[in-house]
Amino acid sequence: MQVRVTDVKRWVGREETLHFREAWPALVHERAEGPVRDPAEVTVVVRNTGGALVADLRGEAQMWVVCARCLTPFWLTVPFAAVEEFREEPGPYESDQDYYRYQGDHIDLDPIVADLVAVAAPLAPLCHPDCQGLCPVCGANRNETACGCERPADPRWEALTRWRPEPDPAEGARPARKTEHPRKD
Ligand SMILES: [Zn+2]
Ligand SMILES: [Zn+2]
Fold it and tell me: Which residues of the chain carry a pLDDT beneath 70?
């Protein structure tokens, strides 16, 4: 994804908006954790701020992910966005720079988009907000079948079922003798 900046770099304050709808660059597939489906949808606003060009880009990627609850793979649309600065100067990109370099009439969005897509997928994607997950007993997908298994007691709660409230210390400290009477059963 190359942005032609011939005009925008000529005047401070100038701004241009571009929409990309095309195949993902190879770099995106290289860095993504899983398959990414075409087309790439990216909108970028490039602004000349004087010392630099600032690219405000946002887009969407359709990524093949696995549901964290029921393990079903599905296509998830994941948004991403970033604001990056470009300065016209020679030399390669260095990771300790907080800006990108460009030379000539184009800035290259591929490395930025590839980095954004690489981290865009959520850690625990859900096929549906109320996905019922897999049955812990028989492994059935509970979105598809009601297997009817009894849910086993969660061992984390076991201690709680045995818990009884401690006697109130104030209660114990009270002189008991006064009220102590021999039992008449
Ligand atoms: Zn699911
Ligand atoms: Zn079951």
Answer: 93, 151-163, 165, 167-185
Residues with CB under 5 A from ligand 1 (ion): 67, 69-70, 127, 131
Ligand nearest to the CA of 146: 2
Distance in Å, CA 124 to ligand 2 centroid: 23
Give the distance (Å) from ligand 2 centre to CA of residue 6: 63
- Which residues, 6 or more positions from 41, have their beta carbon under 8 angstroms from its beta carbon? 20, 21, 59, 60, 61
Give the pTM: 0.72
pLDDT digits (tens, 9 = 90+) for 26-72: 999 999 989 999 999 999 999 999 989 999 999 999 999 999 999 99
Where are the domains positioned within the chain?
2-120, 132-174
